[in-house]
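The protein record filed here:
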Amino acid sequence: MHLLAAKPGQIADGSEAIDLGQTAGDIVVLSAADSELACLARAYANLPEPRPSLRLANLLQLSHHLSVDAYVEDIVANAKLVVVRLLGGVRYWPYGIEQVSAECRKRGIALACLPGDDQPDPQLSDHSTVAPAAAHRLWQFLVQGGLENAAEFLRYGASLIGREGEWREPRPLLRAGLYWPGRSVLSLDDLRAEWNAGAPIAGIVFYRALVQAGQTAPIDALVAALRERGLNPLPIYAAGLKEQAAADLIARFYADATPDITLNCTGFAISQPGAAQAATPFDAADAPVLQVVLSSGTLEDWQAGKNGLSPRDLAMQVALPEVDGRIMTRAISFKAAGRYDDATQCTIVEPQPEPGRVAFVADLAANWVKLRRKPAAERKVAIVLANYPNRDGRIGNGVGLDTPAGVIETLKAMQAAGYAIGGIPETGDALIARLLEGPTNALPSR
């Protein structure tokens, strides 16, 4: 069996045996996280000369045993420091860990095997050849993330292979915090300095991982688009909405700033299907929450496919968020098909915003704000029911649901909230009878 040569800029899934085509480097970092590799490449580009050579590779491209063998022989065997960051432990890359560890021990190469998350993994760590303190420090640089920590990771790695130079300890990144493109923001007062006085506030909540990786281009584009439409953006990064410390901090920001709209870029939901609605960090604003999708796929795949978003994106970023009552918008960014970084000889994958789709979501947010600020009695709201073909008995049909009764309760709630609604039918049957007075999709009787 032969190895296929990987093409620069191409994303391989590892199902075939490939040769990444790299030359030997002083420091080798293997990770399955595209965002981490992109962050390290960017940090490396900013390091002054002289600097050790760096090779980056995605573990997913080294799934095939022959790919591992070739990489170990050509790259690992000639390195001075190898760092493997593996999510899920040894069992997710057993052959790779076995071969890399054996080669490093055979040749006396410094090796750090690090967990891919923030939880210790003694079984994985046992394969390291560097001192436990050194492995822990390398791990913490990557766990905390961000361009600054990535640069210090590389400086510290250089010190482990005999390069003189200063480095600083890992700098913790808050589990949640405020963000603003191009500058450090420590408080709401710092953020208010960027706002227009009296303008409506739009919360933007997104994953901390984007800040860790320095991949905030979609958020930066959203901030700019909202500002163009007269809104004051309130960008907040968070490890996750279910993490209590992050949720509490978001809730405090919301209690203070009271946004008119939220654009949520995180996946999943806080509530459980079929259970009572759970409290969310956005509740203090009592405002609509728009669900914004940062697609995990490429724009090319999305344009060529017939199913829209991938099943993974549909589940995590569309279906589940509906449980929390979020309003679906659309995807505003896609993964770039692949930029080849000559310095690290690695294909870098990054999220790229699509300007037209960002503009659509920003327009939608601005319109929701206008609607929210309009008195309820002046709003015009349509409730649309299904009008299935064949027979009238299928109007508003929902398996396991009493749709007509739900509509009646909705109309009553709207009336109580000040909407100009009169003549609400007494029962679901009365509602259906009124609908049948108009055209339906029933087959004509013979």
Notes: The chain has a mean pLDDT of 92. The radius of gyration is 27 Å. DSSP finds 15 helices and 15 strands in the chain. Residues 58 and 74 are 16 Å apart (CA to CA).
